[in-house]
From TrEMBL:
Pfam families: zf-Di19, zf_C2HC_14. Residues 44-63 form the C2HC RNF-type domain. It is an enzyme of class 2 (transferase). Gene3D superfamilies: Zinc/RING finger domain, C3HC4 (zinc finger). GO terms for molecular function: ligase activity; ubiquitin protein ligase activity. This is RING-type E3 ubiquitin transferase. Its EC number is 2.3.2.27. It comes from Podargus strigoides.
Amino acid sequence: FCTPCLQECLKPKKPVCGVCRSTLSPGSRALDLEKQIETTETTCNGCNKKMYLSKMRSHAASCSKYQNYIMEGVKAVTKEPFHNTRNFPNRFTFPCPYCSEKNFDQEGLVEHCKTLHSMDAKQVVCPICASMPWGDPNYRSANFMEHLQRRHRFSYDTFVVCDYDADEDDMMAQVLIRSLRDK
């Protein structure tokens, strides 16, 4: 995970898993993983120097050849984003499909519905899904509360590089480049 995403998940009020957003409980260090990181060798993609994984981050910060390697990759996948703001759907705030309340973020909508509408069996359209390029604005979920709790436990923005129309290979390349740039 990149630092900003990890910090968001570890906020003191509610530390959560970076993938499923379930609450984290206090645990112990993964000593077996730490040992594996300290004993696994890798090669710098810039200067081809061999080192242990545990040393790679500090090496990458000072290796100009590695930084040039990363910048070449960034140039290869960076494209000029074209956004027509007039036709850009709002994927940040959502109305409640049961009542007239509006402007919930995803987490707020889930909490609102769990608190006030958990017993409402009316079939409704999920406003979060309907805002996505693959969403059907006419599809009514048979069990909206179950859908919310299964499908929207975490935000798509955690996994999507903000361009919902980009193809999967480009998005994966951008994610990998950004994760390598994070120090």
